[in-house]
Amino acid sequence: MAHKELLARHRAVMPKWLALYYDEPIEIASASGRRVTDREGTTYLDFFAGILTNAIGYDVAEISDAIRAQLDTGVLHSSTLYLIKSQVELAEKIAELSGIPDAKVFFTNSGTEANETALMLATQARRSEQVLALRNSYHGRAFATVAITGNRGWSASALSPIKVSWVHGGYRYRSPFKSLSDADYIKACVDDLREIIETTTSGDVACMIAEPIQGVGGFTSPPDGLFRAFKDVLDEYGILFISDEVQTGWGRTGEHFWGIQAHDVVPDAMTFAKGLGNGLAIGGVVARGDLMDSITANSISTFGGNPISTAGALATVNYLLEHDLQANAAKLGSRLLGGLRSLAERYPVIGDVRGKGLMVGVEFVGPEGEPNPGAAGVVLSEAKARGLLVGKGGLYGNVIRLAPPMTLTEDELEEALGILAQAVEKA
Prior knowledge:
This protein is α/β, with parallel strands linked by helices. The chain is built from 13 helices and 15 strands. A hairpin with a 4-residue loop joins strand 2 (35-38) and strand 3 (43-46).
């Protein structure tokens, strides 16, 4: 089926607000390694990985074999009313990797659902509906997670089951504190946090939730140490800290397994999803045991942590640990940042290159430094025309997001940099 015909059918039955990339959207029909092929036979190097989800790449035998082995049992689903061995084994591994003392794990189907669960835990434990969140953040598309999303382009409703106060810190490039040194930037943001607590809340705040690197917000991040300083203030008030690791988890940042570890912080809870299943629908929360057990009502998850998703996720985690993909992300991420910064020296349309590991953002600007979403759109399309798929985001839609599978090779990296250079030249 041609893309044009499928697009017409899509528009007839799918909602208008369901975003599609490109003037002529494509369907991915097959894939292997880091390359995908569309329905019309064009092959691309994938540098967005299903929004950071295909973390290991495509058609990985160890993962496919684990899924097939579970399929061969005939049991695709049983629900959390029954014991699931792969679920328990995966929970044990995540609890150990988390570094959270006495950790327990609850599995969901997505990052949105994981963040909703974390909010429920925190508000129940603290008996408060007040939450602190960062400006420019994104945490999901459900009722409470839209409320804590500090990005108007992704916040569909002003209605909310919680009361949110917004804190500076996550988006440094356009921050009023941009010109400050790292130490002074952190101090200014901490002063802001304390003032927000004192002036916009009644003091008994449930939690702060933050992405160590803001994903949809354009791969933005504060200086290392900001969240350590935030945590010190939060502890004074007994406020819980939740790290949203949906995009930063599993070693993608290169230097650490979890993004928050760059700040020397052990959070009270972490949420995760995306790369864990390498394409399978799975997410979850790992939290201190007492926090996880604070829910007093009955609860289950019909599909969360099902036998198929946990079998595949367990194989994914084992693969990335055995092949030290975190080290590969660090090594190639450094080269990617270096190559893009060299490109920025040649083209003033690039205002900022930032990120860690294989999680890199390129912000496009106009002559006066203003956001330039048009240039980002050109690069998105020109890269595709040359065989490279990249992402786009940022508060103003002016950031190209690069997050290839963590199995990326040096040759593939150089290929991508060459294509990006040609695409930026057209912007």
